[in-house]
């Protein structure tokens, strides 16, 4: 990160589909060492391994990631498949089930495991790729994961398309606006829930002290649809941190985080969105019931009003917008159902 953390390397996923960019990542830059990419340039050259297709082999139930990277690097015939008239071949993968063995003793010496997560350290990562094709950018990431041996932190942006997480979310740790990949598995992880274990101290430091939210409380500034997506991501992380503190029994911190979120991004400047209902159960639990009810009432009325307007026009023109509003209403319903009123 030029001028900020010159020892950190940021890789743009879409660029990782190109050989010239991969070659750049394999060279040092400022204080950053080359990325831990083991394959030679030939494995990433244009037209080679652009896409690896799923070619199931019932005899292969699971695949060691390091072995897989080695076979790809060697252009092994075990992974090659002919197509067309048979004169050309592509690299494939025989199973969607991958694993990566972890040297837990070595990991412990690195000091990367939070004290309260020591028992969550696993000796093997297991996951299903969840993809019928592995793009070159995904292959590069898998290469780095297999080669790095946890010596350098690897993060995924929280705004990355879920497909590019490659179903590694059970091993994600949320740290601000990024997910760190660690050989830790949250026993409470749910594939239908949010990605990543919330590392509360780091998230608190980033969201409450480090990040700046300049102008997001200014109702005179117009934010178009694209710009509104960025504050929505911050709201999501605020809500998740507040919920994590609440689950840990720290109502004071939960309230502080929720109120900070509403203060730096008020509805008047950044209209309440799909993620805002996540704050409602927290606000109820910390005694801010009026504020919670106001959020639900405002979101519900606004969603119904806009949906009613769309119904007076050609609905196909507003499919995406309507889908978003319906999802927001569903979130509001979930939030309302999650509220437990205390009997007087």
Question: Could you provide a short overview of the structure?
Answer:
This protein has 344 residues and is α/β, with parallel strands linked by helices.
Main beta-sheet annotation: 4 strands, mixed
Tell me the series of helices and strands, N- to C-terminal.
HHEEHEEEHEEHEEEEHHHHHH
Relative strand content: 5-15%
Number of strands: 11
Mean pLDDT across the residues is: 90
> Whole-number radius of gyration?
23 Å
Q: Give me the number of helical elements.
A: 11
Main sheet strand line-up: 3-4-1-7
Helix content: 25-40%
Protein described:
With 344 residues, the chain is an alpha/beta fold. It has two domains: 15-150, no CATH class; 217-233 and 245-337, no CATH class. Helices cover 40% and strands 12% of the residues. The protein contains eleven helices and eleven strands. The chain has helices at 19-25, 41-44, 65-73, 104-110, 136-148, 200-210, 225-247, 251-264, 279-285, 289-311, 319-337, and strands spanning 51-54, 63-64, 80-83, 88-93, 97-101, 124-128, 133-135, 155-157, 172-175, 178-181, 197-198. The strands form three sheets. It has a four-stranded mixed sheet. A four-stranded mixed sheet has the order 8-10-9-11. Strands 2-5-6 form a three-stranded mixed sheet. Helix 6 (200-210) packs across helix 7 (225-247), helix 7 packs parallel to helix 9 (279-285) and helix 9 packs antiparallel against helix 10. The longest helix has 23 residues, at 225-247.
């Amino acid at each position: 990160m030029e001028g900020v953390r010159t020892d950190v390397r940021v890789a743009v996923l879409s660029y990782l589909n190109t050989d010239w960019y991969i070659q750049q990542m394999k060279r040092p830059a400022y204080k950053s060492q080359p990325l831990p990419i083991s394959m030679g340039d030939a494995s990433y050259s244009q037209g080679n391994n652009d896409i690896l297709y799923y070619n199931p082999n019932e005899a292969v139930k699971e695949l060691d990631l390091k072995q897989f990277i080695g076979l790809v690097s060697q252009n092994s015939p075990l992974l090659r498949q002919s197509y067309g008239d048979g004169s050309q071949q592509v690299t494939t993968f025989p199973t969607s089930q991958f694993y990566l063995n972890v040297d837990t003793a070595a990991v412990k010496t690195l000091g990367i495991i939070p004290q309260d997560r020591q028992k969550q350290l696993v000796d093997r990562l297991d996951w299903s790729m969840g993809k019928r094709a592995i793009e070159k950018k995904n292959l590069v990431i898998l290469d780095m994961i297999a080669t790095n041996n946890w010596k350098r932190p690897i993060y995924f942006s929280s705004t990355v398309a879920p497909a590019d997480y490659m179903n590694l979310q059970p091993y994600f740790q949320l740290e601000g606006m990024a997910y760190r990949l660690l050989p830790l598995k949250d026993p409470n992880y749910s594939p239908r829930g949010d990605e990543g274990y919330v590392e509360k101290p780091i998230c608190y430091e980033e969201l409450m002290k480090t990040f700046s939210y300049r102008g997001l409380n200014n109702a005179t500034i117009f934010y178009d649809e694209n710009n509104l997506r960025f504050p929505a991501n911050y709201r999501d992380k605020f809500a998740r941190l507040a919920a994590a503190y609440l689950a840990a029994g720290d109502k004071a911190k939960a309230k502080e985080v929720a109120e900070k979120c509403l203060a730096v991004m008020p509805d008047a400047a950044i209209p309440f969105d799909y993620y805002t209902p996540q704050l409602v159960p927290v606000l109820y639990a910390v005694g801010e019931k009026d504020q919670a009810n106001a959020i639900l009432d405002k979101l519900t009325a606004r969603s119904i009003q806009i949906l009613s307007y769309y119904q007076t026009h050609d609905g196909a023109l507003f499919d995406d917008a309507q889908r978003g509003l319906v999802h927001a209403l569903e979130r509001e319903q979930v939030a309302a159902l999650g509220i437990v009123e205390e009997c007087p």
